[in-house]
Each structure stands twice: as structure tokens, then as C-alpha cells.
Amino acid sequence: MDFKVGGTWLYYMAGPEGDKHYCRVDFTEITPGKSFSATASFCDEEGNINKDFALMYWENNFSATATGSKADIKLSFDSEANMAQIVGMGFKEGFTMGLGNLDELLASQ
């Protein structure tokens, strides 16, 4: 991961049968300790964007609370159809599972 404006993060999600689905994140704005924005897309293992899938625009903001920290995440798309495509691929379930994994990790600290 190259966490700087203009930097990228290339990763994959591994399925239960060993299949890999690659994603690319391009960081567009970073305010250290407060927020970052990025554009995410599906791609091949070299990071070449697959234009058959919608772009996802992420805005991530962090703030202190009385008991710790709060993450406010906004995800947007170019169209409702693009959002429906990603949701139809299981995004909601996968993101919910990822947040559950984060809860478990933080609880173990």
C-alpha cells in the first residue's frame, strides 16, 4: 500500500475455492489523523481497471469520542445502476462481515 495522494493499494479477496478477486484503491485526498478519500475499482492482478464494474468513491472521516474513536464512511457511485451492480455482487454482506472482523480484532487488543 502506498498511502499518499496519488498512491495505490492493490489487494485481492480470496474465495472459499481459492479464487482471487483483485481490487485497486487510488488515494485522492488525505488529511493525516482526520480523513482520506479514494476511488476503488475491480482490476486484474496487475492493477489494470476492469471497466465492466462500477467505480466506488470512498470518503472516510475519523473523530474522537468520549470512549474512543468514530469512523464515518460515505460510499458513492456514478449512478444508481452502478450501486445496484455492486450491491448485487454481495457488497453489503461482505462489508458487514469485514466490520465484524474488525470488531473482533479490536476486542482482542
- The coarse silhouette is globular
Helix content: 10-25%
Give me the CATH superfamily.
START domain
CA gyration radius, whole angstroms: 15 Å
Question: What is the CATH architecture descriptor?
Answer: 2-Layer Sandwich
Look at the helices and sheets and give the structural class: alpha+beta
With strands numbered from the N-terminus, the spatial order across the biggest sheet is 1-2-3-4-5
Largest sheet: 5 strands, antiparallel
Task: Name the descriptors.
alpha+beta, 109 residues, globular, 41% strand, 24% helix, five-stranded antiparallel sheet, Alpha-D-Glucose-1,6-Bisphosphate, Chain A, domain 4
Report on the structure:
This protein is an alpha+beta fold and 109 residues long. The protein is 24% helix and 41% strand. The protein contains two helices and five strands, in the order βββββαα. It has helices at 80-88, 91-107; strands at residues 8-14, 20-31, 35-43, 56-64, 69-76. The protein has a five-stranded antiparallel β-sheet with strand order 1-2-3-4-5, with no helix packed on it. The mean pLDDT is 93.
The gist of it:
This protein is an alpha+beta fold and 109 residues long. Helices cover 24% and strands 41% of the residues.
Produce the secondary structure layout.
Layout: E1 8-14, E2 20-31, E3 35-43, E4 56-64, E5 69-76, H1 80-88, H2 91-107
Antiparallel strand pairs: 1-2, 2-3, 3-4, 4-5
